[in-house]
Design brief:
The complex is a heterotrimer of chains A (645), B (100) and C (164).
Chain A: E1 7-10, H1 16-35, H2 37-61, E2 66-78, E3 81-89, H3 91-114, H4 121-140, H5 144-162, H6 169-202, H7 210-216, H8 222-239, H9 248-251, H10 257-266, H11 271-278, H12 280-283, H13 287-308, H14 314-334, H15 338-365, H16 383-397, H17 403-417, H18 423-448, H19 456-460, H20 467-482, H21 496-505, H22 516-542, H23 547-552, H24 558-564, H25 569-615, H26 623-644
Parallel strand pairs in A: 1-2
Antiparallel strand pairs in A: 2-3
Helix pairs in contact in A: 1-2, 1-4, 2-3, 2-4, 3-4, 3-10, 3-15, 3-20, 4-5, 5-6, 5-10, 6-8, 8-11, 8-13, 10-15, 13-14, 13-18, 14-15, 14-17, 14-18, 15-16, 15-17, 15-20, 15-21, 16-18, 16-20, 17-18, 18-22
Chain B: H1 4-24, H2 28-53, H3 57-87
Helix pairs in contact in B: 1-2, 2-3
Chain C: H1 3-24, H2 28-48, H3 52-77, H4 87-109, H5 127-136, H6 139-160
Helix pairs in contact in C: 1-2, 2-3
Classes of the chains: A mainly alpha (645), B mainly alpha (100), C mainly alpha (164).
């Protein structure tokens, strides 16, 4: 009917990418105990490596403006409405595939060392492979329903892995929290999905397929699109930890550190950004939604960065940092710069995974200690970890020619120059860049420099991590530098990245105003505030001084306490939502349900019984009484016929 | 020549008398006899119509009704014997197990 | 007044009387005897209606075989218990039955029945014509009736057999 702009080729290989990790997961699930820890771990790694190899091969095959498709079977068929279990790979998916399988593979390798002493290692790899399967389903699905399966599946794996050490009650609580908060987001997502399908169906188009949706999206009225995109964004905000649904991500750090790196930094939490990018053709038609997304993204970025300033748990700082960086991605989405968002997603995956794995290496070395106040001076003990951590920190802080420098500047430049952007958005992003530099260097100095504040007996065992853990660190550190070079600004050697994603977002991009000189000036400003953050961190934490305490007691210590307690958001939610909800539920369970619901049911039963008690008197068992009834009916019929005559 | 209506009214009266017997008598054997009376009333209408419509079909049907009535009487009396053996009574109002 | 009409009146009065005796007499044997009388009277009506063969069968099968069976069962059981009577129930039953008779009579006699038989030929109702009809048009029901009678015989034997 409508000619597709992209060439579609069928490649049967696609289905194997999710299938191999799924098979490995199933094998480990049923035979893992018999295979042994080493074999199970090896199998899991090989499975992800195979997926990665296929992804590379597909990436190499993929033409600039093409798309691969692989339909496994028709899942639902109802009239003209069809849902197929079908995969597609275009430029956007290819990027996600490389991130998921590539970084996923490195983290699998790392886990071999990190989880070596854990007795649940087989279970761990079952979950991890299952996660890769669902994540691939999410990014490869060529329709909304397959995406949704993956979306829910990764949520499930996230829940399972946060509560992985379920012997500690706090961990299961954290898992529940993540799951429930994600449910709220998913509820919005489902509503948006249903609304989209039924609204298009009202126009005669029943489809969930991305390509067909893109063709027919102009049939929808602007108000409907705004509503649909708002609901979809609720889902994205839940998954990608944006205000107001971000509260689960810091608690999700209860899971093992590789999980934090893979799921809660590099891949799953970016699913929201991926989904909005995948449905960019919808979002660009809803300017109100986009400006809301940009505002929320900026607010989240700034807010999370301020909280990260004061946290003392090494992983919690990184968690808030992740929330903050996700905020950047949503700023980019909100101004319609989808390729910038995906670019930041890509580079962030490298340096944040590297940071998390580095922190995992530190925790591993210190026997599970996560409090930064009990660290310090680890530079000498953990040289590889230290240097990779430095590189990743430089990358996230936006030091020149690192990955974060390119991607963050790209977003800030777009925020300033694109028609949807504004100076305010840029300013918040710029400020956040300074905060980012400060809290990251604060962490670096606290952990690796100065005196070692660890307990004596812990100090005695500090050791560099095994090779399986350091090699992924080195690879990721390299990525933290070079991954950004793909997207250099015009005044350097130009962006390969934009060129690559042009066929996908081509229509979505709008001409930016502003000259290269402005861009360079803005970059210099960003570098300046980053450097300021670094210097502050150095003077406050890099040298032995009383400054931290003095800063903390500033203005009576009020602002500090506010930040330390994360603006009391959890407490506010507890009072505003959780407690009234629990109270209502308890009332419903203890008063309403036994009183009204059970009462109604019992009343119906009692009524039927009473009525039956009366009516059963008719059943005398006497045949002649029955015959009398028969005769009466006969007479009535006769009377009727007589009247007819 | 007797008009048809006479036969019909006569058979209706006989039928009604049979109904009274079935409804009110408290002896199963008399109840069965009343049923025979009702069947004969019906037979009478068949034969009367057969005569006045000059068709043999009515008479044939009466033959069949007689066969069925014979079978009914045989089975009915056998049941009466069986019931009497168990309960030592022929009163249908005593036989009220078929309730609730 | 035609002789046949007078005969009809006599027979019908006797028939109604004997029927009432079947229903209202208290002794079961008397009831049975009244029934025999009623069946004979009906057989006479059959003959009057040009159905001599059916009338003969009526006497043979009904007044003969079936009534013998009834009397045999009465003798066999010899029920002595007298029947209790309930006036209300008797009144209700009689009223309902009368109503039934009236409405049936009204319904049946309102039809336009021919006042005179069209073709009351000599052979009508003879054994020959009856047999011809029975063994040509109605041969299948006739055969099935034999099966019914067989089943009735077996059923009666099973039901009335003394339990071991």
């Amino acid at each position: 009917m409508v000619a597709t702009t992209q060439a579609v080729a069928t490649v049967d290989l696609l289905r194997w990418m999710p299938l191999i990790p799924l098979l490995a997961s199933l094998i480990n699930m049923f035979f893992g105990a018999r295979l042994g820890r080493k074999t199970a771990g090896g199998l899991a790694c090989v499975a992800v490596l195979a997926s990665f190899a296929i992804a590379l091969y597909i990436f190499w095959l993929l033409p600039a403006t093409g798309m691969f498709r692989d339909t496994v079977y028709t899942w639902i068929e109802s009239g003209s409405f069809q849902v197929k279990l079908s995969f597609q790979v275009d430029a956007l998916t290819a990027v996600m595939l490389l991130v998921v399988t590539g970084i996923g593979f490195l983290i699998h390798i790392y886990s071999l060392g990190y989880m070596d002493h854990d007795e649940g290692i087989v279970r761990f790899f079952v979950y991890l492979n299952l996660f890769i399967f669902f994540m691939l389903l999410l990014v490869m699905g060529d329709n909304l329903l397959v995406l949704f399966i993956g979306w829910e599946g990764v949520g499930l794996c996230s829940y399972l892995l946060i509560g992985f050490w379920y012997h500690d009650h706090a961990n299961t609580i954290a898992g529940n929290k993540a799951f429930i908060v994600n449910r709220i987001g998913d509820f919005g997502f489902v509503l948006g999905l249903l609304l989209l399908v039924t609204e298009l169906g009202r126009q005669g188009i029943w489809t969930l397929d991305f390509m067909e949706l893109q063709q027919h999206v102009n049939l929808l009225s602007p108000e409907r699109i705004t509503l649909i995109t708002l609901l979809l964004f609720v889902g994205a905000a839940g998954k990608s930890a944006q205000i107001p649904l971000f509260v689960w991500l810091p608690d999700a750090m209860a899971g093992p550190t590789p999980v934090s790196a893979l799921i809660h930094a590099a891949t799953m939490v970016t699913a929201g950004a991926y989904m909005t990018a995948r449905l960019h053709f919808l979002f660009v038609l809803a300017p109100e939604t986009l400006s809301l997304i940009a505002t929320i993204g900026a607010a989240t970025a700034f807010f999370a960065a301020t909280v990260a300033l004061t946290q003392t748990d090494i992983k919690r700082v990184l968690a808030y940092s992740t929330v903050s960086q996700l905020g950047y991605m949503f700023v980019a989405i909100g101004i319609g710069a989808f390729s910038a968002a995906i670019f930041h997603l890509f580079t962030h995956a490298f340096f944040k995974a590297c940071l998390f794995l580095g922190s995992g290496s530190v925790i591993h070395a210190l026997d599970g200690e996560q409090d930064m106040r009990k660290m310090g001076g680890l530079k000498a003990y953990l040289p590889t970890t230290y240097w990779t951590y430095v590189i990743a920190t430089l990358a996230i802080a936006g030091a020149p020619f690192t990955a974060g420098f390119f991607s963050k500047d790209f977003i800030l430049w777009q925020a300033y120059s694109s028609p949807r952007g504004s100076t305010e958005l840029w300013f918040v992003g710029w400020l956040t860049a300074g905060l980012t530099a400060f809290y990251m260097f604060r962490q670096l100095f606290l952990v690796f420099h100065g005196e070692c504040r660890a307990d004596e007996h812990v100090k005695a065992h500090i050791h560099e991590s095994p090779v399986v853990m350091t090699v992924p660190l080195v690879v990721l550190a390299a990525g933290s530098i070079f991954a950004g070079w793909l997207g250099a600004p015009e005044y350097l050697w130009g962006s390969l990245w934009d060129h690559w994603l042009q066929p996908i977002f081509g229509g979505a991009h709008e001409a930016a105003h502003g000259s290269p000189t402005d861009e360079i000036n803005l970059t210099l400003l960003t570098l300046a505030i980053g450097g300021l953050g670094f210097l502050l961190a150095y003077f406050v934490y890099g040298r032995a001084s009383k400054l931290p305490d003095r800063l903390a007691s500033l203005a009576g210590g009020g602002p500090y306490r506010l930040l330390l307690h994360k603006y009391y958001i959890d407490e506010i939610y507890d009072v505003l939502i959780v407690r009234p909800f629990t109270y209502c539920s308890r009332w419903l369970a203890q008063v309403f349900d036994p009183g009204v619901i059970d009462g109604l049911v019992n009343a119906v039963a009692r009524g039927a019984r009473g009525f039956s008690l009366i009516w059963r008197e008719v059943q005398t068992g006497n045949v002649q009484h029955y015959l009398a009834g028969f005769l009466a009916a006969t007479l009535a019929l006769l009377a009727y016929f007589l009247k007819q005559q | 020549m007797v008009p048809l209506d006479y036969y019909l009214i006569l058979s209706a009266v006989i039928f009604a008398i049979g109904v009274i017997g079935v409804l009110v008598r408290r002896n199963l054997i008399v109840v069965l006899m009343s049923i025979e009376l009702m069947l004969n009333a019906v037979n009478l209408t068949f034969i009367a119509f057969s005569r006045y419509l000059a068709s043999m079909q009515g008479q044939v049907v009466v033959i069949f009704v007689m066969a069925v009535a014979a079978a009914e009487a045989v089975i009915g009396l056998a049941i009466v014997i069986s019931v009497f053996r168990h309960r030592r009574t022929l009163d249908p109002q005593e036989m009220q197990l078929l309730k609730w | 007044m035609d002789a046949s009409v007078i005969l009809f009146y006599v027979i019908s009065v006797l028939l109604v009387l004997s029927s009432l005796m079947v229903v209202f007499l208290r002794n079961v044997v008397h009831c049975a005897l009244a029934l025999v009388v009623a069946l004979f009277l009906i057989a006479i009506l059959f003959v009057m209606l040009h159905a001599p063969m059916v009338g003969v069968l009526q006497v043979l099968v009904y007044a003969g075989a079936i009534m013998v069976l009834f009397l045999f069962v009465i003798m066999f059981l010899n029920p002595t218990a007298s029947e209790p009577r309930r006036k209300l129930w008797w009144g209700f039953g009689s009223a309902a039955a009368l109503l039934l008779a009236a409405s049936l009579a009204a319904l049946l006699s309102n039809g336009e029945a021919p006042a005179d038989p069209v073709t009351a030929t000599e052979t009508f109702g003879s054994p020959e014509t009856l047999a011809k009809s029975l063994f040509t048009d109605f041969v299948l029901p006739f055969e099935i009736t034999s099966v019914l009678l067989l089943v009735a015989i077996i059923g009666a034997v099973v039901l009335a057999k003394r339990e071991p």
